[in-house]
């Protein structure tokens, strides 16, 4: 610039740093502002822009120091901190920040949470799996008249789904005055992750009667529902309808779900048919699903199980599968008494320095 930047200039360029996740540029602009006498509190708009940039760049230590030094905070300041904590593996801290916001006078209207704040903390609740906290936030949203907002309603559906309450997820969906495509996709995914395949498929019919055209995300949720309960034929029908009726090209994740559904149902004979339809070459995820399913059914001694070429590609090291695939194959072999083969899979896993991340559950 051939003119000295002012506060408005910096407040305009800082969101670009946040969008690019460019922490270095954000720090440089913050340093420029400080050298120009921009101490915390000198300009709330710039402070919030810097805070938002730090939060979105995952520099939570810098964000918290700036936040604590601000003599005055508005709803944007609090929301930036809640958003950053919720998406930086600190969901419990995000909920704590929201409670602090309420204690700081949020109920009095000075810095009352808005829909963006509620959506951010609902994301944190979905990560923690705390149903009680989700219900409390739902009650708060109802009292503040925010539950009817589409973005809040969609976040409530997602939070209830992640907390394992499919009934309340559907209730939050049903109470939305206006439902967009995200609402339909979120509630369909809620049914899928909770093993309610029939309800997910019924939602598709209801969606079509309402004149809403499904997109790739909705079909992915339907395929995921079929995968969870091993409905291979329904998964193949959904995949075919997606491509032939609605003109949506299935992505890698859609084919992977269909393959997984066939594997869980023992329909290994359908693998080649699905793979032939795929526009892309085999990749790690797709081949991993194929090999894991083939290994499991071969280990059980199911007659007529094909996939030998895929199995050989895995043994030859052509498929660079993740640790979970190795663990699944080793367990499948061990379950049917093939201990030597199971040990061989584990040895191959050790030789290639592949580690299996330990699973965890909120229950």
From TrEMBL:
Signal peptide region: none
PPR repeat residue intervals: 180-214
GO molecular-function terms, A-Z: RNA binding
Highest taxon of the lineage: Eukaryota
Keyword Repeat appears in the UniProt entry: yes
GO biological process, one term: RNA modification
Protein name (Swiss-Prot/TrEMBL): Pentatricopeptide repeat-containing protein
Provenance organism: Dichanthelium oligosanthes
């Amino acid at each position: 610039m051939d003119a000295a930047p002012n506060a408005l200039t910096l407040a305009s360029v800082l969101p670009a740093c946040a969008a690019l996740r460019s922490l270095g540029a954000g720090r440089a602009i913050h340093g420029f502002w400080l050298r120009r006498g921009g101490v915390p509190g000198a300009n709330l708009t710039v402070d919030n822009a810097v805070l938002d940039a730090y939060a979105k760049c995952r520099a939570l230590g810098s964000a918290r120091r700036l936040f604590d030094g601000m003599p005055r905070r508005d709803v944007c300041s609090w929301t930036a901190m809640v958003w950053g904590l919720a998406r930086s593996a600190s969901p419990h801290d995000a909920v704590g920040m929201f409670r602090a916001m309420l204690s700081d006078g949020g109920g009095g209207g000075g810095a009352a949470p808005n829909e963006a704040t509620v959506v951010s903390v609902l994301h944190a609740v979905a990560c923690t799996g705390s149903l009680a906290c989700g219900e409390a936030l739902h009650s708060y949203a109802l009292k503040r008249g925010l539950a009817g907002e589409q973005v809040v309603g969609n976040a409530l559906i997602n939070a209830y789904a992640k907390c394992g309450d499919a009934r309340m997820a559907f209730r939050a969906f049903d109470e939305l005055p206006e439902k967009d495509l995200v609402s339909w996709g979120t509630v369909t995914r809620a049914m899928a992750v909770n093993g309610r395949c029939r309800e997910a498929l019924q939602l598709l019919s209801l969606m079509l009667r309402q004149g809403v055209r499904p997109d790739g995300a909705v079909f992915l949720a339907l395929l995921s529902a079929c995968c969870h309960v091993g409905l291979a034929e329904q998964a193949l029908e959904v995949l075919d309808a997606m491509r032939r009726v609605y003109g949506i090209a299935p992505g890698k994740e859609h084919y992977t779900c269909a393959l997984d559904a066939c594997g869980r149902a023992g329909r290994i004979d359908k693998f080649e048919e699905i793979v032939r339809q795929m526009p892309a070459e085999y990749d790690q995820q797709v081949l991993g699903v194929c090999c894991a399913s083939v290994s499991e059914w071969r280990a059980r001694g199911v007659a007529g199980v094909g996939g030998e070429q895929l199995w050989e590609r895995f043994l030859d090291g052509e498929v660079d599968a993740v640790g979970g695939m190795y663990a699944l194959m080793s367990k499948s072999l061990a379950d049917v008494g093939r201990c030597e083969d199971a040990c061989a899979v584990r040895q191959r896993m050790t030789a290639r320095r592949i580690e299996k991340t330990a699973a965890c559950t909120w229950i």
